[in-house]
User: Fold this.
Amino acid sequence: MLTISRFTCEGLAKGCVTDERRPRLAFSLESDRAGAKPASATITVNGHQMVLGSEQSVRYDGPELAPRTTYTAHLVATDDAGETAEADIAFETGLLGAPFDASWISDAAYTFADKGASPVPMVFRRTLELSKPVASARIYATAMGIFDLELNGRRVGDELFAPGFTSYKTNLQYVTYDVTDQLAEKNELLATVAGGWAVGAFIYSRVNRVAADRQALLLQLCVTYEDGSRQTFGTDEGWEVTEDGPVRYAEFYDGEVYDARVSLEDATWRRAAREALRVSPRLTAACGDPVRLHDRMEPVSVTHVGDQLVFDFGQNFAGVVELRLRGAAEGQVVRVRHAEILKPDGTLNTDFLRSAKAELVYTCKAGDQSFCPTLTYMGFRYVGVEGADEKDLALCAYPVFSDVRETGTFACSNDKVNRLQQNIQWSSRSNFVDIPTDCPQRDERMGWTGDIAVFAPTACYNFDMGRFLRKWLRDVRAEQLRGGGIPNTVPANGFGFPTTMPSMAIDFWGDACVLVPWALYQAEGDEEVLRENYDMMCRYVDACRFWASFGVGKYRYIWHTPSFLHFGDWVAPDVPKMSQWQGRSKWTATASLQHTSSLVAQVAQILGRGEDARRYAELSQNVSHAYEDVFTDGAGKLKNEFQTAYVLPIHFGMLGESNTERAVDNLVKLVEKGDYCIGTGFPGTPYILFALADNGRADVAYKMLLNTKCPSWLYEVAQGATTIWERWDGLDENGQCPIGDDGTDMMISYNHYASGAIGDFLYKRVAGIEAAEPGYRRVRVAPLVGGGLTWASGSVETVLGRVSSSWKLADGTFEIDVEVPVGATCELLLPDGTMQELGSGSHHASCACQSDEEA
Assistant:
């Protein structure tokens, strides 16, 4: 039987509100018939029919969509045997560019000038009466700052930190809420607006008021009555505002201060005033994945340490705690601090938070009560509580992250590798908080481009990254520098020279504008992500070419600007200081230029830009030749040897065939000399196991993967890590942090996904699942047996459906089960070299295969 497993509008199966005038509709199929193929489909949207062949997505091409309207899409899919399946989804349009029937409002009397501080949250209030029965009602709201809404005493919606983090000078989202069931005849609407990213202190230099001088609110409540009439209530001078609400302070770094004794009935209310913004962003319906609270977590232990109760959640994560207090005294102050690790005496180690306080201060009213902050979040495993007795306190926590759909699973016969996979997933969740961040705990939590540049392929296996990354890429395009470079963090939000490098192209970090769209294209097969980012990619590679051109002869293709203008082999563990990581920039930057120009050449070819394809391919080839001529002896040996300098040219195909073989041999010697420990920084870590395994040295790749000595992936696991560390040596074997004065200002995060880019290897080589064609229309399954593993399994929910591979090795026989979705074909490569062509459905195959011990 043919069934429709997923039917989406703009990537959402439900709840889609969009300002896309031609939204994308897509579906995936399942069938219990082997070899089933899609034959045709029709999608009808409010009477307009679109006819498809075997393709499984289409952009709406009917009459112009009306704003604030609900549409129904009806899908009928037919396979090659004539079986049919049907499904329906509903989606809404937002304002579609129409202006708000409302004004920006703020408290004109409120100013704050303190450097490094965040403003007191504002509370806006409006009462309104409805005279007729309501058919439907929507709130459309945005802010300069972040907001919570409350209607008639109940929270509106379940997302946090609305309207999200964007490049506020160009892009600002608004959020749509269905409040039909919350309205009564008499209503009170409250909006609490904190500084958030736009107004509050942010980045480690604590700049504030980047996008606005103070918070501001823009909101309209649109009511449709049962008789068909409509009424809109918008923000204007009829609203009231106060700074006397219970949330006394709220900031991402320092936390939240809340006074439960405060009643808004006792507040001093003023009339709100119209606010003229300093920026003029384009207003669009929220297009990413909203940040939400996720599954509740209970502490695994509680310990009395001095005056503190120290709770251990057994897992490092980004989130918030919820306090439940019994019989509290009025005015009792409960202080909650957060940390990733403990000191030897059992107290919280907050040294590495730098300036971030990461605390909650809660003042009780009398009696039983509970509190969970909604205008901040922390990165922590441990919580220290002062001011409450254990018998009167119940404490739990909720992970906080964007609601990205989990799509990938991986497991194998090695429990430490399985823990590594879990650590990768936890660090991903912790750093997908509306934008891809670097860490969730200290005074950063910024959109560092270098982290997601190297991690995007792994992210696209574990999660559906389409909406999340497209939203972020919109801001990358908006913030591209005049010279073509990309800011080191996006949104930059006040982060720039001299706090970081000057406005110029920075290798690997700026590469995100090429690598992230390319990863999405491989995962989804949608050329549109390449098309909408193509100009940005070209401008960036041209900028890189410019900065690399200051030389003569071959040196015209060696990017050798001063090392302090690069990150180089960032956090490479084989050299101890930041200046030494940066000192490798000639190698990393030159390889980056080769790689990005090669990818842009491929993108140009896909998009039919033949002249561009030729030009960038020629540039890539010239850079390859220059790297080989300048940095090697011409026979595959580097004049200055370190792991990353071998890994990048090997994996990027920059060397001739014979020299590649010799370079692999030399890399192996380096790895063996280092006792199979990792020596790569950000640029080389995602690729080192591929460079070895894909060039005949899977044995060495597996020894590196399974190594438990420091530095290695499994050393972290052996030390009890539950997330990926920023630094390979984050803790010594005694559980203490050895990071000293290395020029990074004590930079160590224990929740940093970048080196978790190894997840790409786990899926592609260990489980063996790879997109042979973008979007998995053709799948390659080719498990790489080794490392003493006796089984491995992986699955990916692709745009076409579920792809899975599950293999085991026993008694000299390799067996594998493969699942191929409807609409895809698969080439299965067995360890004995046998190739099989598979259609959709479930398949089993086997061959003779020796284990490592038998070989």
Observations:
- The mean pLDDT is 96.
- The two ends are 45 Å apart (CA to CA).
- The longest helix spans residues 585-606.
